[in-house]
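Suppose a colleague, Dr. K., hands you the sequence of a protein chain of 329 amino acids and asks what its three-dimensional shape might be. Before reaching for any lab equipment, you can write down a predicted structure in token form. Begin with the sequence itself:
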Amino acid sequence: MCRMILVSIVIPIYKVEQYIIRCIESVLSQTYRQLEVVMVDDCSPDQSLEIAKKYIQNSPKGRDLLYKFHRHECNRGQAAARNTGVKIATGDYLFFLDSDDEITTNCIESLLCESENGHYDAVCGDVKVVGNNPLFSFNHQVGSYNITHEIVKAYVDRNIYMVIWNKLLRSEIVKGILFKEVAKHEDELWSFTLVNSLSSLKNVKECTYIYYVRPDSVSTQGVTIVNYYSLIDILKDMVELYNSGKITSFKENFSYIQEKRISWMSAVLRSRLKLYDKWLLFIRFYNLPIGRNGFFLKNLLSMQVNHFLYPYRRSLSLKIRILMNNRGE
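The predicted structure, expressed as tokens, is then:
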């Protein structure tokens, strides 16, 4: 049995009237009761926060929990809402929950017990995805990591997923890492900084989070030029962290930044942006002070060629398999 540790569940709220009760009910139903529920309304134009408050008031399940409600005066984005939640949370551990998702009934208890009475800086459960989103995938590799270098390597190898939610995180560490308030992809920089700040992390087998794919969510909206400039800002911050020594100069950190520089620029080239906008973005990617530009250009070209040839290689492979099967008959 894990000892009593206060856990703050931080929930940013914006235009989720249809889903907020499902989310709140999953929190009120937790088997672990030392909870502080922090809800931050990012100036939502609907009644999401009011619905949540009313549901909590009318439910006998959550009367033993602590609550904090905050509303932004203007819409500042999900990153800002999370920052506000982190600042006002008082728990020993923090857990981020998106307001259109839910957690399993024993989510917090399971993760906290897996922390071995607060030994681990971070504990991550597995995720169940509801809905069709082929882009959402990761390799949740069960295991424990007890030095920062191991954690960074596992992250670069994609054995630790980079999303913000479904991680039980030591509060004192998270409070030192604010989210960058950009249009999108704030999880990229935050996760990169986080893994370089952890001394211990455990991935557990149990599924503790239910992620719902919906067409009107932030994560499924179309990519615009603003998003690409957000990626540039994030990459610049990663480079600054690495070059300034604010994070350890592991070779994995360097290769991760290089890989992002190439793959994000490749995404720009494949996008529907105007040629002039692509050129402006290319100049910014090219001028980043990380690694050799020759390496960047060579691998960028290789990625574009592979992307162009992929449909033809796939078609050829299919024809070869059909031919081999026909010969076998």
